[in-house]
């Protein structure tokens, strides 16, 4: 689809804010990108980029055009996916953003099982905080999100929600590991490793701390759940995350998850969704159904 190449040029320049950097990423010359954009601007009768000494910036017309082409890009991907289906294939790329709690076990397992049936489908997964995930969805950088406590987005359509408890994570030799259920005041007696404040679970914990007046002995903070698990393992710290991100019982690392008493910590929603009225590419729509089924299987009978 060669006629779409110029749209790729515009989109990449808008993201990179530099014709030179966009050209490097596209593996073409900067002069070729600049020439094609100039031709498009002449055809449209509007300047899309304001050329500056250190890069470019979208004009108002450029903002409108880029928003339009990103919407059309999603439709083009859906069309190509449907054509592949007509050829008896199930090709396509599923673009999804997820919270870090889903990156260790739930989403990799879901993708692995899906590809056993649809081996030609590829995945582009962004592991980010909930604010970034919703921004990526709004900018058409991803088609699906699976995030904890997503911020409000007017044209967001939830496909599935799942109530999640916050849990405490520790080694099996930690004193708290002997308890069936822990209170926050129990955790406050030991050094903890916390996710940074942009993470939904940390925000939920901060709200509980403000309500109860508790203060933690914070030994470390990080935006990486992998690092937090490492600190739990090697520094014998206590950390926190949502239940779906807990490692399976009897895992080789020797980590255990303990439910936090509901009197201290309310549940909050893990949300799976897309933009409202967005026609998903076929492979993405089929994967969305796959995720819905797996999330429904986690709902505990009332």
UniProtKB/TrEMBL annotation:
Pfam families: HTH_1 (PF00126), LysR_substrate (PF03466)
MF (Gene Ontology): DNA binding; DNA-binding transcription factor activity
Source organism, top-level taxon: Bacteria
Keyword field contains Transcription: yes
Record key words, sorted: DNA-binding, Transcription, Transcription regulation
GO cellular component: cytosol
Stored PROSITE patterns: HTH_LYSR
Annotated ranges, domain HTH lysR-type: 1-59
Purpose of the protein: NodD regulates the expression of the nodABCFE genes which encode other nodulation proteins. NodD is also a negative regulator of its own expression. Binds flavonoids as inducers.
Family: Belongs to the LysR transcriptional regulatory family.
Protein name: LysR family transcriptional regulator
């Amino acid at each position: 689809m060669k006629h779409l190449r110029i749209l790729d040029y515009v989109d990449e320049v808008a993201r990179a804010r530099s014709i030179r950097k966009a050209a490097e990423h596209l593996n073409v010359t900067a002069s070729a990108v600049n020439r094609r954009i100039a031709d498009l601007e002449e055809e449209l009768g509007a300047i899309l980029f304001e050329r500056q000494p250190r890069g470019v910036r979208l004009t108002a017309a450029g903002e409108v055009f880029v928003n339009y082409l990103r919407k059309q890009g999603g439709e083009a991907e859906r069309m190509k996916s449907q054509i592949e289906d007509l050829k008896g294939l199930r090709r396509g790329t599923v673009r999804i953003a997820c919270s870090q709690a889903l990156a260790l076990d739930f989403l990799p397992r879901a993708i692995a099982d899906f590809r056993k049936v649809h081996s030609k489908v590829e995945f582009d997964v962004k592991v980010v905080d909930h604010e970034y995930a919703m921004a990526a969805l709004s900018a058409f950088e991803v088609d699906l999100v699976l995030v904890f406590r997503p911020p409000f987005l007017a044209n967001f359509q939830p496909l599935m929600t799942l109530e999640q408890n916050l849990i405490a994570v520790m080694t099996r030799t930690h004193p708290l590991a002997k308890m069936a259920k822990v209170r926050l005041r129990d955790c406050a007696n030991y050094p903890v490793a916390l996710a940074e404040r942009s993470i939904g679970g940390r925000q939920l914990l901060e709200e509980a701390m403000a309500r109860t007046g508790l203060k933690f002995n914070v030994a470390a903070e990080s935006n990486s759940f992998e690092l937090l698990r490492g600190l739990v393992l090697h520094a014998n710290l206590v950390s926190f995350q949502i239940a779906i991100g807990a490692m399976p019982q009897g895992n080789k690392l020797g980590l255990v998850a303990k439910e936090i008493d509901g009197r201290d910590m309310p549940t909050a929603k893990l949300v799976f969704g897309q933009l409202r009225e967005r026609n998903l590419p076929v492979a993405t729509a089929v994967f969305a159904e796959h995720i819905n089924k797996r999330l429904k299987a986690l709902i505990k009978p009332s």
